[in-house]
Amino acid sequence: QVQLVESGGGVVQPGKSLRLSCEVSGFTFRSYSMHWVRQAPGKGLEWLAVMSSDGSHTFLADSVKGRFTISRDNSKNTLHLQLNSLTEEDTAFYYCARERPYSSVFDYWGQGTLVTVSS
Amino acid sequence: DIQMTQSPSTLSASVGDRVTITCRASQSVSIWLAWYQQKPGKAPKLLIYDASSLESGVSSRFSGSGSETDFTLTISSLQPDDFATYYCQQYNSYSGTFGQGTKVEIK
After folding, report:
1. Which residues in chain B are closer than 8 Å to A107, comparing Cβ atoms?
2. What is the per-residue pLDDT across A54-106, written as a single tens digit (0 to 9) for each?
3. Closest Cα to residue B71, out of B16, B2, B4, B13?
4. Which positions in chain A touch B49 (Cβ < 8 Å)?
5. How close, in Å, is residue B11 to chain A by CA atoms?
């Protein structure tokens, strides 16, 4: 069955960096565009980034452009999100999500990984 | 950027009630609108896509309608398992902007 498992979250000081990973199984990873979405505690969902199936196209939300980088390793079925210059406003659960081809909805999500930015 | 506005933010209802949540886009998104359900501590779950298509495995008491800028999610007869937060999402542009969410609470 389709599974997405995020990892790499934790407690980090302001200004530091963190790299999140999303390892997938149960589908042909290289055929799907993938997204990152975050949710601050008690708040709504915020779309962050997308990478095309072959990695040739990426888009990031204005709120994280220049600080976050999305990447993927299709040989390892893994999506990454590099978080730099973190601030307390980046404290959130970070989810990866699969984009359904020809529809663009997010049909499968991981369980999320919590990033806490605190001094 | 396309902005999505949901109403109401919170909705109190009883089991068996018919519930309607609305979502408005700041510009046309055609039919490229999805609805998700999220329960505490869980990832969102896709309910409706392309404005009115029911995701496989989702109860038929959920339905969606609308196009362009105005959309509706309806739960025909609210069940105990339906108390959750619901989000709309546009995917007309490369970014998948979400609405702010509607929490459906027990009355």
Report:
1. 46, 55
2. 999 999 999 999 999 999 999 999 999 999 999 999 999 999 999 998 888 99
3. B4
4. 100, 103, 105
5. 16
